[in-house]
Amino acid sequence: MKLFASIAVGAAVTIAALPAGAEEKATVKLNLDKVNPELTIPAEIYGQFAEHLGTCIYGGLWVGEDSQIPNTNGYRNDVLQALKDLKVPVMRWPGGCFADEYHWVDGIGPKKDRPVMINNNWGGTVEDNSFGTHEFFNLCELIGCEPYLSGNVGSGSVEELAKWVEYITAENGPMAEKRKANGREKPWKLKYLGVGNESWGCGGNFTPEDYASEYRRYQTYCRDISGNHLYKIASGASDYDYNWTDVLMKKAGRHMKGLSLHYYTVKGWNGSKGSATKFDNDDYYWTLGKCLEIEPVIIKHDSIMNVYDPNKKVALLVDEWGTWWDEEPGTVAGHLYQQNTMRDAMVAALSLDVFNRHTDRVKMANIAQIANVLQSMVLTQGDKMVLTPTYHVFKMYAPHQNATYVPIEIETSSREVRDGRMVPTISATASQKGGELNITLSNIDLKEKAEITIPLEKIGKNAVSGEILTSAKPNDYNDFDNPDKVKTVSFKDFKVTKDGLKVTLPPMSIVALNVAL
Ligand code: AHR
């Protein structure tokens, strides 16, 4: 049942009450006169996360030089191309929980000499360390993205992390000589350095007070070397843990550039998380309500950060987010392999809209994870690869990267979903770059189409183009036998009128419009 309430969902968007009606009639007003040219949507909002977990790295990104699967220096070609097309801005590695058991020296030098280890967090799989620092940094160079390292605090040492930074960034000195001996003459650039991961849990079970002290100590010895500048990131809270943010900001805020936040769209941590593909309409709407709850969570963390940092010098980085379902039946326990449906695509669109409207504080977000794990971009099986519905959303939203944010006001209906959360029917983001407007719109309703008016003056007849992602059912997905069930196609259901653009969105659809101004 649809209810028509007024919900405030963030700085630049208001959702006003609308009378009930079968077909949605919404307005998306672009406040072009209120654009702040300084407020861009950082490309890093579209960041990725690659952990040594299941087949994310091995099989997903990396197959090794000797593989039958077509590859470039060991990276599979199909995935490489897909990630280049996606314009991945930043990739976080090597974990996750794995990061706090990872010893980087095990992953350098001749592969035959690299020790094996047990991946204790993720199924007890044997890790042969064939993908290490060189393989990660070279991958980032090939894709053209910023590397984001997660350092080991839980089972590592200050010396180990400091030397890793030196190994990567120094022109000269003992660590640089070691790197050169391993085949890399020039240092890499390293901007994003995470000091630990989930330090309240798998990263060491610290209290916030103890972790704040550890953070201060670790970051002291991670130095800017040879002209490299580190952007140091403290391990932040899990969703509703506001005390963690408070203590970290109070005790260590002035030593960090960023504080992380993890928020998963998950039913709970005990028992079944629900199937990725078998769900009913109620489950679909519940999922969107849960995913949108990240907005009040961000607002609350931001308000705490404001107490210590009113000028928003410390960024909030949502460096893990996305859906978490039960593992697909028949897959390896602990490898977190899940399918990805139109429901996941909708979660991606709505979450990105939330991040886009909070970029005064939120400067990066890294969906979990890039391949074969949780809400991934690609799924692989042997030499086959499919692009997930979530991949398509990231591609449709790519024009927002580094574009100027356009504040919008949406008038739409909303519905109450299981657990009492309110979910607006229409969600959107608008941005401006180089004489073009890019508008992404979603209609979450499973049955009704939506007619959306976007008041705009002086649009040329052929100035608008669009593409759409939709499917017959919310649990439609792409599989190796049917890789293009959910894909983007050209979208033409819009009219340029004297009142602006009139767009008709089919039920459960995501549309990207490009308008030449
Ligand atoms: O993304 C999977 C896991 O979720 C990460 O390793 C951990 O940081 C989080 O709990």
Structural descriptors:
single chain; alpha/beta; seven-stranded mixed beta sheet; 23% helix; 10 helices; 517 residues; binds alpha-L-arabinofuranose
Please describe the topology of this protein.
Blueprint: E1 2-3, E2 7-8, E3 14-16, E4 24-30, E5 47-49, E6 71-72, E7 75-76, H1 77-86, E8 90-93, E9 117-119, E10 125-127, H2 133-143, E11 146-151, H3 158-169, H4 174-181, E12 192-195, H5 208-221, E13 231-238, H6 242-252, E14 258-265, H7 281-292, H8 294-308, E15 315-323, H9 342-356, E16 362-368, E17 378-381, E18 384-387, H10 389-397, E19 404-405, E20 408-411, E21 414-416, E22 422-424, E23 426-433, E24 436-443, E25 450-454, E26 464-470, E27 488-490, E28 494-497, E29 500-505, E30 509-516
Parallel strand pairs: 3-20, 4-25, 5-8, 5-16, 8-11, 11-12, 12-13, 13-14, 14-15, 15-16
Antiparallel strand pairs: 1-21, 2-3, 4-20, 6-7, 9-10, 17-18, 19-23, 21-22, 23-24, 24-30, 25-29, 26-27, 26-30, 28-29
Bound molecules: alpha-L-arabinofuranose.
